[in-house]
Amino acid sequence: MTRPKRSLYSFSLPQLQEHFVEKGFPKFSAKQIFNWVYQNLEFNPENWTNISKKLKAYIQEEMDLTLPKVVWHGLSQDGTRKFLVGMHDQQTVETVAIPARDRLTLCISSQVGCAIGCTFCHTGTMGLKRHLLADEVVGQFLAVTLWLKENVGEGERLTNIVYMGQGEPLHNYDNVKTATEIFLEPNGLGLSQRKVTLSTSGLVPQIEKLWDFPPVNIAISLHAAHNDIRTELMPINKAFDLERLFGAIKSIPLKAHRRITYEYILIDNYNDRQEDIDGLLSLLDKKESKINIIPFNDYPGSRFKKPSQKKIKWFMDTLNEKGIVTTVRATKGDDILAACGQLKSMEDKLNLWD
Ligand code: SAH
Ligand code: SF4
């Protein structure tokens, strides 16, 4: 299903300003409309009191104002909420809201499915159905914000974003870039750079273009310190092996005091040995890196296992003792298959559109 009109939520602020100037409308109206939509969550142009009738009519006529919809919701015992968000063509993606201390982090999707095909990842088994457009990435945030406001209350606000849902965000570079600009725009959703994290499996050409991307936190899905193991886990390592990956990582413009996070899925009897620790120590720069261990999450049909708690702790403690800041990610939402790597669209299981 094609959409004849471009969505209002697919424009970054500079793009909307340029568009208005081209069409003979005042440039400043773009900022006002950003305020209505993203700060006041007022999506009905009739209520935009400071916008001219002519511009409102133009927007209603020429632009798509519909938002993705929450079509299903699940609540985990630990407070994690999983949302199935439906797009205009009835494709769905999963979006997960994870509470922790004073934060409520939204784990968003960038694609329907994923083309990278990592062997440990539930999403990877779907293949790529399509990229999400910028408005569909931003739309997940808006749809969940509205849902929380309606169902939980005004106090329940999303504070952080991680691109760790379905899809490889850098494979969908332009749309994810525009969406991120809207997340960071002070007149838009107004999140600080430090509250947004992009996770990538290691698409080298796009990593080399990160100088042109808003300066958010970067997480690299490393998962192995040796090429043979990494290739078995992540077919992308055939095209871009560790040497090329680390060559590209050097080109990432890091601001002072910031580090790159390396995600490392710990799999029982596989990448949890002393030689994996040694490999990590020789690959990573201690000052500029931190490691986030993700104990492997099971899903139906997975062929790997989670290591014991003792093994996970040993792996983490040894890396910390050797001087690399290492943490273990708490598994959240696994009772509703909302943890990392367990996301897979469920439209086949649910009759959502009746
Ligand atoms: N495609 C991007 C971002 C989404 S995946 C990437 O791969 O980085 C988000 C994180 O979940 C990645 O670090 C991914 O490797 C991890 N993950 C995937 N499957 C997992 C599983 N079964 N158990 C634990 N983590 C998993
Ligand atoms: Fe895609 Fe990331 Fe899953 Fe790999 S881990 S298949 S890159 S979503």
The biggest beta sheet is recorded as: 10 strands, mixed
Helical residues, percent: 25-40%
Amount of beta strand:
15-25%
CATH domain class of the largest domain: Alpha Beta
Detail the topology: elements first, then pairings:
Elements: E1 6-7, H1 13-22, H2 28-39, H3 53-62, E2 63-64, E3 69-75, E4 81-86, E5 92-100, E6 103-107, E7 111-113, E8 128-131, H4 134-151, E9 160-163, H5 173-184, E10 196-200, H6 204-207, E11 217-221, H7 227-233, H8 236-239, H9 242-249, E12 260-266, H10 274-283, E13 289-295, H11 309-321, E14 325-328
Parallel strand pairs: 1-2, 6-9, 9-10, 10-11, 11-12, 12-13, 13-14
Antiparallel strand pairs: 3-4, 4-5, 5-6, 7-8
Helix pairs in contact: 1-2, 4-5
Bound molecules: S-adenosyl-L-homocysteine (SAH) and iron/sulfur cluster.
Residues 114, 116-118, 121, 123-124, 166-168, 201, 221 line the site of iron/sulfur cluster.
Which descriptors would you attach to this protein?
2 domains; DNA polymerase, domain 1; two-stranded parallel ribbon; binds S-adenosyl-L-homocysteine; about 350 residues; disordered C terminus; 10-stranded mixed β-sheet; TIM Barrel; binds iron/sulfur cluster; 14 strands; alpha/beta
Account of the 3D structure:
With 354 residues, the chain is an alpha/beta fold. It is 31% helix and 20% strand. It has a ten-stranded mixed β-sheet, with helices on one face. Helix 11 links the parallel strand 13 and strand 14. Helix 1 packs across helix 2 and helix 4 packs across helix 5. It is globular and about 70 Å long. The relative contact order is 0.13. The C terminus is likely disordered. The protein binds S-adenosyl-L-homocysteine and iron/sulfur cluster (SF4). Iron/sulfur cluster (SF4) binds next to loops.
